[in-house]
Design brief:
heterodimer; A: about 325 residues; alpha/beta; Rossmann fold; 8-stranded mixed beta sheet; 4-stranded antiparallel beta sheet; 12 strands; about 35% helix; globular; B: about 325 residues; 7-stranded mixed beta sheet; 12 helices
């Protein structure tokens, strides 16, 4: 594995939605890189902008996007609609949360999978063979029979396997998985996470996993970015962040998770800010127990500390 | 002291496949639990395990096909209308999704007042509502708002307020935090624990989230396909699970903290077992330790304090 080859680089990404006279700054200046073989987790609460970020990475986001998204050396923002269509699927693909809405309910599984290949110029017979192989790869029993099934004949976990098969069909460089297991039961979730991990290992896939569950991230990722109100507040190696979270928000988030011990949970007070009118300075300062005067007026710059990037005025001192 | 007791509860539903064909789904089968006063009883299981049905049966919202529910010594299936009504006032429920359980066109005050009307409250409505809304950590201003003006966590607090207005003793919490963010979930869990201490509630806490259940519960029951597979003190069940399914469940939870000391063999899903395999153990097809006896004979729930339904436990 070439750990240092950069597969995707995001620079100063902004996504703004306009709603009437208001502008919602869902993603507001985000930088990160995904290296080859990385499993990069983006964690945040609802409304933090993580799904918008995921969609904009594959240029499916309806909002106004600016900044640079460089995948495999190509700036996606500069591609035409026609070019990006070719890019999607072959170089970058996405797995959504709800497999039943990602699949076409009136089309057989096999036909949907084969479509991925035929659209990208494969012959029908080759598409069939490859689809069959894929279903086996993602662990669907009786693949031949399943090719003829409709989505409603499959369980949630099986449907998600089909969606994963579609996403990896053309061996893309980067797979974005947006809450791929949130609609599934825990035992099935464990199966799917295992599958994603194995596929990533054996195909050298780089993955961006978007989740609200720190546990899911801990299970399969090696790097993590914590999002809050459209900003990436902390990015780094997963293990080092979990053992020593530097940003107060990361700490607060971790203190909210029940550990299976009767230890008192320390919930965060307040709620995620209105993204059309975010607080001045650091966006987390109204809820931050360590906030000082400077936090309310000056926005913290991303600070590089060892292997990690933290956006906090008090990083390192608290 | 026992507050609520379920004895050999069974409930099945007819599911229509077509005009002429229907199948019987046994949602809950022969389940007995007793919940002590001021205890939190956790019920865990995957979707389709029958945990919500059991919760509804315990509230007598749903009539069991067989078995009895005894609330404070009264057998509800034999009790008269008024007795059931009185008992129902003492039992309340909070559902998963506050968007569905609160009327979007009613102001919070009216929603809460309706609950008081239902239980024929005699005292000062306004005073009582104000006390309760503060108990759940909301300000009195909230009363004039509509549900859409509140955040998810606030709505769930309103749902909780509505449940405690009637001064219940027993509250069924059916996935009360599943629709919420972790930070808000932590707030609600702490609130539930506080209220229980202050007002001596007894909870039946239903959730698919094991870490949440282990955080709030004293005792816990594990359900799978309508059966109770394991039952015991929360710490014992989670630290030394006896049933292979409990082990699978615990090792499946993605977490930063719980050690992965149990087996990881994990295949199949609930629906695969379905209805045919009813003569033996329900978990038989997915169980790595399954022997012939598991296919043919159903294990009983045995044990003293820590009960388990497995031939090889």
């Amino acid at each position: 594995m070439h750990q240092n080859n950069v597969v995707a680089e995001v620079r100063d990404l902004k996504v703004h939605y306009s709603m009437g006279s208001r502008t919602i700054k869902a993603v507001d200046g985000i930088d990160f890189t995904v290296r080859e073989g990385d499993r990069f987790a983006i964690v945040g609460e609802s409304g933090s902008g993580k799904s918008t970020l995921g969609l904009s990475l594959i240029r499916l986001c309806p909002g106004k996007v600016s900044g640079q998204i460089i995948v495999d050396g190509v700036d996606l923002m500069k591609l035409s609609e026609e070019e990006i269509r070719k890019f999607r699927g072959s170089k970058i693909s996405i797995i959504f949360q709800e497999p039943s809405s990602a699949l076409n309910p009136v089309m057989k599984i096999g036909d949907q999978l084969m479509e991925v290949f035929t659209v990208h110029g494969y012959s029908k017979s080759e598409a069939y063979q490859r689809s069959l192989q894929l279903l086996k790869t993602v662990g669907i029993p009786e693949a031949e029979k399943r090719m003829q099934s409709y989505p409603h004949q499959l369980s949630g976990g099986m449907k998600q396997r089909v969606v994963i098969a579609m996403a990896i069909a053309l061996n893309p460089r980067l797979v974005i998985a947006d809450e791929p297991t949130s609609a599934l039961d825990v035992t099935i979730q464990a199966q799917i996470l295992n599958l994603l991990k194995n596929l990533a290992d054996s195909y050298g896939l780089s993955t961006v996993l978007i989740t609200h569950d720190m546990g899911v991230a801990a299970e399969i990722c090696n790097r993590i970015g914590i999002m809050y109100a459209g900003k990436m507040v902390e990015v780094g190696e997963l293990e080092s962040i979990f053992s020593n979270p530097m940003h107060p928000y990361t700490r607060a988030l971790m203190a909210c998770i029940p550990r299976g011990l009767k230890e008192h949970l320390k919930p965060l007070s307040g709620h995620v800010p209105d993204l059309s009118n975010p607080p001045e300075g650091c966006r987390f300062h109204p809820r931050c127990p360590y906030a000082k005067d400077i936090c309310a007026s000056v926005e913290p710059k991303p600070l590089k500390l060892d292997d990690r990037v933290v956006s906090c005025h008090r990083a390192g001192e608290i | 002291m026992e507050l609520v007791k379920a004895e050999n509860l069974s409930k099945s539903y007819n599911i229509k496949l077509s005009l002429t064909k229907s199948i019987k789904v046994k949602a809950v089968e022969d389940v007995s639990i007793s919940i002590l006063k001021n205890e939190v009883f956790g019920l865990v299981g995957e979707s389709g395990s029958g945990k919500s049905t059991l919760g509804r049966l315990m509230l007598y919202m749903e009539r069991p096909d067989s078995g009895r529910i005894i609330f404070k010594g009264i057998d509800l299936s034999k009790a008269g209308r008024n007795e059931v009504k009185e008992a129902r006032r003492r039992m309340q429920v909070v559902f998963q999704n506050p968007d569905l359980s609160l009327d979007p066109r009613m102001k919070i005050y009216d929603t809460l007042k309706e609950a008081l009307d239902c239980c024929k409250y005699k005292g000062d409505f306004k005073e009582r509502i104000k006390t309760v809304i503060e108990d759940v950590g909301l300000s009195a201003d909230t009363l004039n708002m509509f549900p859409h003006q509140l955040s998810g966590g606030m709505k769930q607090r309103v749902a909780l307020a509505r449940a405690i207005l009637a001064e219940p003793e027993f509250i069924v919490l059916d996935e009360p935090t599943s629709a919420l963010d972790v930070s808000v979930q932590a707030q609600i869990l702490n609130l539930l624990i506080e209220l229980r201490k202050k007002l001596n509630y007894t909870y039946l806490f239903i959730s698919h989230n094991l870490s949440v259940v282990s955080y709030v519960s004293d005792r816990v029951g594990v359900m799978y396909l309508g059966k109770l597979l394991e039952l015991g003190e929360c710490d014992e069940v989670f630290n030394e699970p006896l049933h292979p399914y409990t082990k699978l469940l615990i090792s499946s939870v993605p977490t930063l903290y719980m050690a992965k000391k149990f087996f990881a063999q994990n295949h199949g899903c609930v629906t695969e077992n379905g209805d045919e395999n009813l003569s033996g153990c329900r978990f038989f097809k997915r169980c790595p330790y399954a022997k012939d006896v598991c296919r043919s004979r159903e294990p009983e729930l045995k044990g003293d304090r820590h009960k388990v339904a497995c031939h090889f436990a």
